[in-house]
Amino acid sequence: MNFPATRLRRLRSTAAMRSLVRETHLQPSALIYPLFICEGEGIRREVSSMPGVFNLSIDEAVKEAEACAALGIGGLLLFGIPNEKDEVGTGAYAADGITQRAIRAIKASKSTSSLVTIADVCLCEYTSHGHCGIVSRNPANRDGEHFEVENDSSVALLAKTAASLAEAGADIVAPSDMMDGRIAAMREALDDAGKQNTPIMSYASKFASAFYGPFREAADSAPQFGDRRTYQMDGANLREAMREIAQDIAEGADMLLMKPAMPYLDVIREARQRFDLPMGAYQVSGEYSMLHAAFQRGWLEPERAMLESLLSIRRAGADFIVTYFAKDAAKAL
Question: Is 206 designated active site?
Fold first, then answer.
């Protein structure tokens, strides 16, 4: 029926009415908070390009985890920042690596049992060159895009890393490297390590995005030469993203993570319509920092803009959201 018999504003008349008919909801339990963990003790060093985000020593990370649990946040996504790096990212799969020790410490706290502990699986924070795998050892190939990030040898180390993190106690391992065949290799490595029940949450369609800049400061992971366009996805390709996701599912992925979120809401929506796995989206550092820049200038109302940005990601189809706003959003909710 048409106006005046049909008046859609009837269901917007009060806050209680709007809440009753609301189609999409945000809950703290659907938020995942990233932590950047560094060596040392008592360290809480703010990332200059990400207000309110810190590099944390393990003892401080445990305190942060306990605060997240108290707020009802669903989980943590852990990134390690080692003191020493090398060509093959040894610290990523070391039994006493920074992330492995952080997982054990967080799990040892009685106040964090409600949190799902997710370990990022990549080599970029641990390699001296800053790429997500092993780089060709021919120096002549390190000019622009002419260097090579080797796929298969990198996959072997990534699978080793996933098994090491699971053995340390990670509830979920989350590969973000974008090497071909990594999910099958990780599933085999996990199973061989007796970790058949550890889920793999694949960054299945991770795009080579300009929105990662602040993260690279936080994680000290900027490439020392070239860029990551030969392995992260071209932002123009939606159909290819669906092929990436389908391949990871076929190889044994249990969950999906889309990255970035807001510039790729159409990709999230398309993936939600095609695939039925649990799926999250990562509201990346650039999304967070540009909103904060507007907040600092008084151009946007912080709480409303923050929640609206998260709601758009949920509405597009994400079941959960990795976001640096997790604590602030949980307080607001």
Answer: yes
